Amino acid sequence: MTYHPYSLHGRERTGRWCVTCDHATNFVPAEVNGGSLGLPAEDMARHIAFDPGAAGVALALAEQLGGPAICSNFSRLVIDPNRGEDDPTLLMKLYDGTIIPGNRHAGPEELERRKALCYRPYHDALTELLGAREAPVLCSVHSFTPKLKGRPARPWQVGVLHSHVDPALANALIARLRREPDLVVGDNEPYGGHLPGDAVDRHALQHGRPNVLIELRQDLIETDAQQAAWAARLAPLLEEALEASGR
After folding, report:
1. Over residues 73-94, mean pLDDT
2. Does pLDDT of 195 surpass 90?
3. Which of 39, 44, 68, 213 lies at a CB distance of 3.0 to 4.6 Å from 161, suitable for a disulfide?
């Protein structure tokens, strides 16, 4: 069976929004170390391997917004599509205190092989998808763990990440989300939003496209019903924010 490093959903939809999920799955292709990175199943089920719940939100959100969605089909531990090609964290050997055995001895040749197998096809597909649409808007969906090892609990239900290069849509969404009385909203939390060469930079900022990256706390999107509910909640807020941003 031929390996496909991404899945594309709703290409026929004509809305402006294009939704991505860079860390959709914990899958390790057979072409990489025989399909295993040497970690136990409980570690592969953690946030170090993918963004639990994010893919379900992304797919439901794209449907709500009437646009396509593209999801990776490889673990971020195989290679991280949300990093630039020259980023030293592109292939992680240690993550949140866990050594990745299958990456321990991976050198430049193995990195290049994984780029060709997974990383570049994913980005090529996203480049083609956005390039074929008129005035596309990029929405990247991620999830974050409620607590990193040795760190305090994270209070935000949702974080909105953005770059100083073009924060208009993100700032409009933050303002709208903060009108929701039950939400604690992170502004560039729990992570900073500008990473040169990352997926948003590569596909939106470098082309002047409106963009926003949403982080949802993983304990809030564990089930299909929770994922669908967050998508239904976020879709109209994103539309309002896009209008308010003037983009």
Report:
1. 95
2. no
3. 213
Q: Check residue 98 and give its pLDDT.
A: 86
Task: Kindly calculate the radius of gyration of the chain based on its CA atoms and give it in whole angstroms.
Answer: 17
Q: At 147, is the pLDDT very low, low, confident or very high (cuts 50, 70, 90)?
A: confident
Evaluated on CA atoms 226, 98, 196, 22, the torsion sign reads: negative
Nearest of 79, 99, 97 to residue 23 by alpha carbon: 79
Tokens standing for residue 26: 């914990």
Q: What angle do CA 244, 246, 247 make, to 5 degrees?
A: 120
Q: Superfamily assignment of 6-245 in CATH?
A: Zn-dependent exopeptidases (3.40.630.40)
Tokens of 187: 């502004």
Spatial distance between the Cα atoms of 32 and 7, rounded to a whole number of angstroms: 19
For 209-230, what is each residue's pLDDT tens digit?
Answer: 999 999 999 999 999 999 999 9
Query: Where exactly are the structural domains of the chain?
Result: 6-245
* Beta strands across the sheet bearing 69-72: 6-9, 69-72, 17-21, 137-144, 211-217, 158-161, 185-187
